[in-house]
Amino acid sequence: xxxxxxxxxxxxxxxxxxxxxxxxxxxxxxxxxxxxxxxxxxxxxxxxxxxxxxxxxxxxxxxxxxxxxxxxxxxxxxxxxxxxxxxxxxxxxxxxxxxxxxxxxxxxxxxxxxxxxxxxxxxxxxxxxxxxxxxxxxxxxxxxxxxxxxxxxxxxxxxxxxxxxxxxxxxxxxxxxxxxxxxxxxxxxxxxxxxxxxxxxxxxxxxxxxxxxxxxxxxxxxxxxxxxxxxxxxxxxxxxxxxxxxxxxxxxxxxxxxxxxxxxxxxxxxxxxxxxxxxxxxxxxxxxxxxxxxxxxxxxxxxxxxxxxxxxxxxxxxxxxxxxxxxxxxxxxxxxxxxxxxxxxxxxxxxxxxxxxxxxxxxxxxxxxxxxxxxxxxxxxxxxxxxxxxxxxxxxxxxxxxxxxxxxxxxxxxxxxxxxxxxxxxxxxxxxxxxxxxxxxxxxxxxxxxxxxxxxxxxxxxxxxxxxxxxxxxxxxxxxxxxxxxxxxxxxxxxxxxxxxxxxxxxxxxxxxxxxxxxxxxxxxxxxxxxxxxxxxxxxxxxx
Length: 544
Prior knowledge:
By secondary structure, this protein is an alpha/beta fold. It has 16 helices and 23 strands. The strands form seven sheets. It has a seven-stranded mixed beta sheet, sandwiched between helices. It has a five-stranded parallel beta sheet with strand order 9-8-7-10-11, sandwiched between helices. Strands 1-5-4 form a three-stranded mixed beta sheet. Helix 15 links the parallel strand 20 and strand 21 (about 480-485). Helix 1 packs across helix 4 (about 120-130) and helix 4 (about 120-130) crosses helix 5.
């Protein structure tokens, strides 16, 4: 029996590779891209450690070359979903009873595997099937996911160390039990790291999980599942179940042992889940934990004291990196009249320098949006702006889906701060700008606060500290992640815990101990060393 007291050291964030010409990582990723492109994968379900093929197939295609098929994947039916529930519950007893250090070791090993032999594979898979450029893939599917694994192990230790005070004669302790039942993890297409974190965060705390990946990210997520298995994750702890979201959710939310959902996706879908769980609340063994990060309508607010060059760069990077397919992407901006012409010139110049095309060409900054549905939705917004006299397109506005789902980085100038594209989440490379009178700074901050139903990310650009403080106060509920003189994207695990409120989710802060706490059900245990043997208290004694 190992009786050593194990300590998990606070990790460092994984360094980001540059992929500069001539670098070894550039050579490795190009080789892996070639290999994956020339291999047609058949992706099974993985339930209870077993590969299952249902014969009902979906396809994984490259968004930037939609004729190219990377893989076919098997979809779960009702039978497989029920089997996954059985396997998750069967694995739970053993998994939750092993020492926490052993769970930590598995995910630390996963981090090291991803940092080394899996790095090129997962990055290449993300580039090909989600059309991310190499740097965006590196930040996401390598560095952030590695950080999630390492920091979650450290945060787990931090949680377990938090213990109550004990008075003389007794000892108090908190046991951080996993939830009673199984967890349902529903993951999005846009961040491979979220695909890995949403099932693994509950799992590291002793829970077992059914993982339903986004259909447009099955390809990269499958490699994460293979990574978990190579790291030594026991069978049934995480069960990989791609398929129809509505069908899978209907079955899971009807189960007595459903204990929680870990979700990232649209506000509409999350609201539907919330309603369904409420309808079924009398069925459950325990009140489920509902953890969700949903939509965003994220802003950049500029004060007259701001640096023009910094603002222009933040607008371009914040709005157009990964084609704006980030829940944190800058989608609306408020710019003072006095700076607008200078910022406009800088913005147009930078956008003109952007190359759009395949992520396999490393010169391209913008690649394809994820699929035809997304392409059509964004196209409709662009056409709406073209047809409206209150809107002027100053960059982009063109699109082409003949080869891939390409949309130019598009910037729209509007006269109305409540214009449609200032309010609604678009999830694409479309930035809307409203120019306000300098003297109406505070009034426009108030407008920014009440324009959208979301509250995820936002930023203020200003040199004037009082202006910063004013924005910080008025916009305190407008963004769960608030940035000063920086774009509203790019949260780093361990540095900027991520999440928002309002229509943006439950704000349970992925990348911190706060999220892990949601996957525990603490039990207080008091042990009395010498128990009383008489019911009488001292006050009951007679006077002498």
